[in-house]
Design a protein that fits this description.
The structure is a homodimer of 203-residue chains. Helices cover 53% and strands 6% of the residues of chain A. Chain A is of the alpha+beta class and 203 residues long. A four-stranded mixed β-sheet of chain A has the order 2-1-3-4, covered by helices on one side. Chain A is globular, with a radius of gyration of 17 Å.
């Protein structure tokens, strides 16, 4: 088994944190996205969509998409449960993980990819107007998240879950994107300090 | 229990097809998105993100995000399994469902929302350059899907799954978006005819 990993990108980090929370170690191979190694013919045979990360099983089967890789390991090692247990909690974790993807991780990524000079050859075409359309959506969603975190310890309720991992990676990706978390979002700041202090956050 | 549903949008259709495949009936309330009913204060209290669909449980709990709603019913009624069974199949279904969302449903939706005159007040601002950036990605992904469907009966392998539902809703949403499936993609066309003929497709 081998995980194709990239140190700087937020999606591979989601998988590394997930594995650290599970206590699972997987051999990794670094793919340098800034050097366009994910666009080479070699990596394209691994993932025709040229996205990172990807997991190669011992029989050669490839699993791409961060959350698909996480679900594979959740099924192999159900504890600690990071996708919830019981119908309602499973649905709430899925809801908040997706809300944090669609409204935070993806919106931050759109701003980053469509404004950052380093992305000029990786995001073609860069559409600056699309970055600016997304910029206010980041903060709009953080306000909704702040209201939720006023009522719960974690993003999807009282237990740490994959939704916390997605939100942490998205918020930390705001730094290179040069968007700050507004100071008045005290619940987001309290939660961020807590999840960023877990050993898994360094994975 | 009540499902907030919109007849014309692709995401609520995903949930209706999923429920039809499971043989589950849920009372629905129509929310007219073209009349901006999903932007009213009433619906915003149900889903602060103002997205459709949403499921209201008998205790008042709200589950939004189509796939979160589907997972709720999968947990309540596991058969037929539409998210796969066993670690590897679960991961493959998740991978293909997400690939079909990110590269097909979302790209088609970006073209629709950023070009269609009827969306002028719902997608603010419309960014035509972003629509044009996405238009070729729709066809690029359909070629990858066609290669997969040359080897398998269904999107995620040999069994019908939620990935087929996402792909069907995305491809049918190409019609109002005025993008055609290229004639040479014979495997996509074979598969589409089959899944569109299932009774659930009319849900």
């Amino acid at each position: 088994m081998k995980l194709y990993d990239s140190r700087l990108a937020p999606n591979p980090r989601r998988v590394r944190i997930f594995l650290a929370e599970k206590g699972i170690e997987v051999p990794t191979e670094q793919v340098d996205m800034m050097a366009k190694q994910h666009l080479t013919p070699e990596y394209t045979t691994i993932n025709p969509l040229q996205r990172m990360p990807a997991l190669e099983l011992d029989d050669g089967t490839i699993i791409s998409e961060s959350i698909a890789i996480c679900r594979y390991f959740e099924a192999l090692r159900p504890q600690p449960a990071l996708f919830g247990t019981g119908a309602e909690e499973i649905a709430i974790v899925e809801m908040w993980n997706r809300r944090c993807e669609l409204n935070l991780l993806f919106t931050v990524a759109h701003v980053f990819r469509h404004t950052h000079p380093a992305m000029k050859e990786l995001e073609v075409p860069q559409v600056p107007a699309w970055a600016e359309a997304n910029r206010p959506r980041v903060i709009d969603f953080l306000r909704i998240l702040d209201a939720e975190l006023a009522r719960h310890a974690f993003v999807a309720g009282d237990h740490y879950s994959v939704a916390d991992i997605t939100a942490l990676c998205a918020i930390d990706f705001m730094k290179p994107t040069r968007i700050a978390v507004p100071d008045e979002l005290v619940n987001v700041k309290r939660w961020h300090a807590e999840v960023a202090a877990r050993p898994s956050a360094k994975a």
